Each structure stands twice: as C-alpha cells, then as structure tokens.
Amino acid sequence: MTDRFVVMGVTHLRSPWFDEVARWATGGTIAIDFVKCVGVAEVAQRLRGGAACSAVLIDAAAPGLDRDLLTAIRRSGAALICVTDPRVQRPAPTLPHITLLPPTFGPEELITTLAAVAQPVSWRTVDRAAEIVPGPVTPEAGTRRAVGRVVAVCGRGGAGSSVISMALAQQLSLRPDGAGSVGLADLTLNGDLACYHDAVDVIPGVQEFVEAHRHGSPGRSNSASMLHEVPERGYALLLGLRRRHDWTVIQPAATAAALDSLAGWFRWTVCDITADFETEEQTGSVDVEERHSLALGATGRADVVVAVGVPTMKGVRDLVRLIDDLVATGVDPASIQPAVNHSPRSRNARAEIAGALGTLCVHPPKASPVYVWTRRGLDTGLRCADRLPSAVGDPVADAVTELANRHLSHEPVHAA
C-alpha cells in the first residue's frame, strides 16, 4: 500500500468544496484520506494527540483561523491550506506559511498543491502517531527583524514591581540609548497600571492589541491608537487586562507576535508581568499555561528579567523562589537582575541579602542585587500620575543597561 496524503478539513456553513473533496477521496478520484472536522478545536485536539496529518484544508471564513492554529499545525509538521471564500468580506489571512486555493479548485489542483507543500503519511502510521517529527517553528525568511530590547519586571505581591517598571521606563527614556523611544506594557493579570496612570478610558488595551495580531501584523500606524502616550514620563503605555479573567481571550502565538511588534517599534520595551510561570509540562493543564501566556511570553522574549523583592524575611524567601521559578521556565540566570525595593541603607544588611540569594537560589543570578531606597515624593507622583523621582528608577536602569551590554550579545529576532 502506497503512502497517502492525510488531510483534515474545516469549513464554515458547509462550503461546496468540503463535500466535493470528501467525494473525491471516497471515490478514489484522488489518493488522499479526508478527515472532516467540526472546528479548529477538533483539529488542535487531533494534532495534540499525535494524529497523522499532511495538511489542514480550511475555509477562510472558519472561526479560529489565526496564529495559534498556524503554530499548532506547523509544530506537527503539517501544512495549512486556506480556501478563499467569496462570501467573506474580510481579506485573506496575511499570516506567513499559508497556501491559498480558490473555492473552485479541482482535484488536480488540490493534489498539485499538496505535493508542493505537504508530505504524505505512511499507511502504517495513519492510526498511530504521525511520522513527521514535530520541531520548533522557525521564523520565516525575509520578515522584519525586531531590534529593540525587552525587559520583563516581576515580583510577588507587595514587592512594588509595577512601580519599579514605571520608574525604569521613565529613566530609560531619558538615556541616549532610549532617546524617548520606550514602551511600557502592562501584562499582569490585575492590570494595575491603568490606576497608576489615572487612565479615564481603559479601552483599548492589551486585549485589543493582541487581537490585532491574530491574523497578521497590523503595523505601528494602525496600532498607534492602542497605545497611550505618557508625556510626563516619556513613554508609551499599553494598558492591561480590564478584568482578571480576560486572560481567556489572550492567545499565546498572537501574544508573541505582539511583543515582537513592540520590540520592533521601541528601543526599550518594559513589560510589567505577574510572577506566575507554571506550564502544561509542570501541571498537566493547558489552561494553566494559557493563563500565564502573557508572563511566559514576556520572559521568553526578554533580554533582561528584573526580579523584585523586599528586604523582609518573607520578602527574601519570595525573591529566592521567584528566581528559581524563572530559571525553571528557561530564563538564563545571567539575564536575571535582582532588585531589592525599600532597601535598607546598612551595608551589612544589604550584604546579608546578597549572601542569602547566592546561598539559597538553586541557580544564583550572575548579577549583584540592585538596591532601591524609598524616596520622598514617590506617593505624590503615583497619585498625580506625574514624574517619579529619578532616584527610584536610576539604579535599576543602570543595572539593566549594564547587564544588557555586558552579559548579552543582543541578537535581533524575527518578528512574526
């Protein structure tokens, strides 16, 4: 028995081509196995379970045709073929690695397309796992390259990581390598930066920004209205989630594309994130990983991760656990910058904190902790959404810049 193409089909409102392909397959007109799916969720579930697949044939009007579906298909080794639909007013998807077919395609055109972009599956593996070995999704050739640096700032509750992220973004915008080109993104689950900036209108925010990247790259001109300029502090702000449970509408692949866009627009992008990084591998739950997709996406994309803690017994313990959690998710210890907020002025006390981090962390960070003292005028600047004391952000900005220049050979990455 020869190898055959295994094609999963997804349509919208029973498009005519859907039944035609099924007849060609069952009648032997073309040598393919056609698997009808009721939606992209079934396709994703089959691929996750190791089902053999050469290509996914999907109608342009089918709900769920976005970056995350494309990522799942490419990771399985299959191809994505999109059938244009004249009934749909929206343009065809602009995502890379999609092959387009007209709705009037015939059996010869389908076979020719499959031969060009897909691999047949051995008949011995159709009912087991696919022969195609999943691999990492490599960036497409010829795409725009992101050149800016990304800094993720995180800390346990009460550590002051949001204040540190605002002060850091403000001070980076005043430096020659920032030159006013700094973005601050609220990627926390609570979305507190809207409160700190006295935002009257919290729409649009990260939800709309990520959604705009589901089906392509909108470009800065089209996304400028989703960013809020903060002239008092010299950065552009992307507001966060309006409700904590709104993480359910955030898709991981679209989040990664949105972060790459920010990195391409700004010299520095500071991301305020929630310090939760559990993955499906650790918990066995896809939902848990998707809930943390904003934090995981930021740390995976970040050049420097600032871990914020406070100088109490529990605060140091939380900082140690935070650093260990970051390393467990794949963050290089050399790119982690510890920051101690409300730091004591005593050299002995600061030395004890540094010693505790070096002793208790499984993989201690290479950088020495930076200490941020409580400054007069900070509360006033927060309440009035005015400029923050430079002494709050300067120590962290110095450490982040030095770490980026010393430990990181900054390699620009492809933006999707």
Describe this entry's structure for a reader.
The chain is an alpha/beta fold and 416 residues long. It has helices spanning 16-27, 40-48, 67-75, 107-117, 161-172, 193-196, 206-211, 220-223, 252-265, 280-283, 286-291, 293-301, 313-328, 347-360, 378-383, 390-407, and strands at residues 5-10, 32-36, 55-59, 79-83, 98-101, 145-146, 149-155, 182-187, 228-230, 235-238, 268-273, 304-309, 336-341, 370-372, 413-414. Helix 3 links the parallel strand 3 and strand 4 (79-83). Mean pLDDT is 84; it is low at 124-145 and 410-416.
Looking at this protein, list some descriptive labels.
416 residues, alpha/beta, 2 domains, disordered C terminus, eight-stranded mixed beta sheet, five-stranded parallel beta sheet, Rossmann fold, 17% strand, elongated, 16 helices, single chain, 37% helix
